[in-house]
């Protein structure tokens, strides 16, 4: 088996392999040369721009593609900074080659290369958490689906208005609200213009996809929602939002106010938000009408460079700790790291021969340093071993806001 990044003449085959593996039709009619030309000259998506970042496994003829995966570069937020991340997508193996370790060898080649390329994190949306945990990924963060009956609230006391996005006229306003919404949340992607749905031109009359921007009374954009009309039963519909974010709570209220304009024939509005947002307290009625709140995981995160992430992390107060990490895929992450921090920032991060205060596999380190658990919970995880109970664990492992909206 040969594993490498794809060549120019293999781009179309990647999409064909993915279509066969996932059993959905490939409607691409252009030649490979035309597909490559557009990707090189006028990329419309991040996957197009970074088409060269696709890894594939081939039979020994170095020609017959057995399976492939995308490794798409992003920039994500982490503890107040912005750092390189690789989004994993399109993980596909042709059925006749399954159970032959195709994806395993792709990861074995790809992960160490990410380290050498300066990547700090990698993220994916798994078909199986157990499968990807073998490669160091771990569940990281939660999201909540809210299904709000439009009878559960009345008009909120905000004075702005919602404006329909048509063409590209509101692209700057949409991007501004997204930046505000990102705030200090770990793993939120720093978007390029083409990362926004409909960035090349909104056409709601044709596509039946509706994006509204809520503007405050002073003209400041504060809320964005994109929804489609989904039928629940005859003559009863749902506003199903694929995008729903806001600069502040006025933006949230403004979007819900606009939803009331559809109340005569829409039953509810649904949208995803981070789990740490307190939406329940802001909706007046939860008992008389059927509102729902459903929690789900957002995907799996992996730290690619332990030392770099420890240098970038934010701590609470001052102190020092010795963290032992075991990583089967990236050997440079193995060992004990001495972290000395002052006033919340690392001043020293280095490998040492000293005994660790705590040890853990890379999967647990990946979620804990990102902020999934408070220390008292982190120390009880099955893979975590505490060697020095007096170490300042709460200064290093504590709950942080986490969310990600982009898919790849």
List keywords for this structure.
408 residues, alpha+beta, Aminopeptidase, Nonspecific Lipid-transfer Protein, Chain A, 3 domains, seven-stranded mixed beta sheet, 11 helices, 23% helix, globular
CATH architectural category of the largest domain: 3-Layer(aba) Sandwich
Number of domains: 3
- Percent helix range: 10-25%
Q: What's the rounded overall pLDDT mean?
A: 96
CATH fold-level topology of the largest domain: Aminopeptidase
What's the CATH H-level superfamily name of the largest domain?
A: Gcn5-related N-acetyltransferase (GNAT)
Task: Tell me what portion of residues adopts beta-strand conformation.
Answer: 25-35%
What does it look like?
The protein has 408 residues and is of the alpha+beta class. It folds into three domains: 2-119, 3-Layer(aba) Sandwich (Aminopeptidase), CATH 3.40.630.30; 143-297, 3-Layer(aba) Sandwich (Aminopeptidase), CATH 3.40.630; 302-395, 2-Layer Sandwich (Nonspecific Lipid-transfer Protein, Chain A). The protein contains eleven helices and 19 strands. The chain has helices spanning 11-22, 32-41, 46-49, 102-116, 129-133, 171-182, 204-207, 249-259, 306-312, 362-370, 375-378, and strands at 2-5, 54-58, 65-78, 81-93, 121-124, 138-139, 142-149, 161-164, 210-215, 221-233, 236-246, 266-274, 292-297, 300-303, 319-326, 335-342, 345-352, 358-361, 385-386. The strands form three sheets. A seven-stranded mixed β-sheet has the order 1-2-3-4-5-14-6, with helices on both faces.
């Amino acid at each position: 088996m040969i594993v490498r990044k794809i060549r120019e003449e293999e781009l179309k085959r990647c999409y064909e392999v993915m279509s066969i593996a996932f059993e959905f039709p490939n409607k691409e009619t252009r030649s490979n040369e035309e597909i490559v030309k557009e990707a090189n000259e006028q990329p419309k998506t991040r996957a197009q721009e970074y088409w060269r970042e696709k890894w594939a496994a081939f039979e020994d003829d170095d020609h017959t593609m057995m399976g492939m995966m995308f490794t798409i570069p992003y920039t994500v937020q982490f503890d107040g900074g912005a750092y390189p991340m690789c989004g994993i997508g399109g993980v596909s193996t042709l059925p006749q080659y399954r159970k032959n370790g195709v994806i395993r060898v792709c990861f074995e080649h790809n992960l160490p290369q990410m380290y050498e390329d300066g990547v700090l994190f990698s993220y994916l949306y798994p078909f199986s958490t157990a499968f990807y945990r073998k490669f160091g990924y771990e569940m990281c963060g939660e999201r909540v689906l809210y299904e709000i009956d439009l009878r559960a609230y009345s008009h909120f006391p905000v004075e702005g208005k919602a404006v329909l996005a048509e063409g590209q006229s509101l692209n700057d306003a949409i991007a501004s609200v997204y930046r505000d919404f990102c705030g200090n949340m770990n793993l939120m992607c720093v978007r390029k213009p083409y990362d926004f749905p409909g960035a090349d031109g909104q056409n709601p009359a044709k596509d039946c996809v509706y994006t509204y921007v809520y503007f405050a009374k002073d003209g400041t954009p504060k809320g964005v929602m994109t929804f489609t009309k989904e039928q629940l039963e005859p003559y009863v519909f749902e506003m199903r939002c694929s995008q729903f974010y806001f600069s502040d709570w006025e933006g949230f209220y403004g979007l819900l106010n606009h939803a009331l304009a559809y109340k005569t024939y829409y039953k509810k509005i649904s949208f995803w938000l981070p789990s740490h947002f307190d939406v329940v307290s802001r909706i007046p009625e939860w008992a008389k009408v059927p509102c729902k709140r459903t929690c789900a995981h957002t995907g799996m995160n992996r730290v690619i460079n332990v030392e770099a992430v420890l240098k970038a992390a934010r701590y609470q107060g001052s102190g020092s700790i010795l963290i032992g990490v075991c990583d089967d895929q990236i050997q440079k992450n193995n060992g004990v790291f001495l972290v000395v921090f002052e006033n919340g920032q690392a001043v020293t991060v280095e490998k040492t021969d000293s005994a660790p205060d705590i040890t853990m596999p890379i999967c647990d380190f990946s979620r804990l340093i990102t902020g999934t658990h408070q220390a008292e919970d982190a120390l009880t995880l099955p893979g975590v071993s505490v060697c020095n109970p007096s170490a300042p664990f709460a200064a290093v492992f504590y709950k942080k806001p986490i969310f990600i909206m982009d898919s790849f």
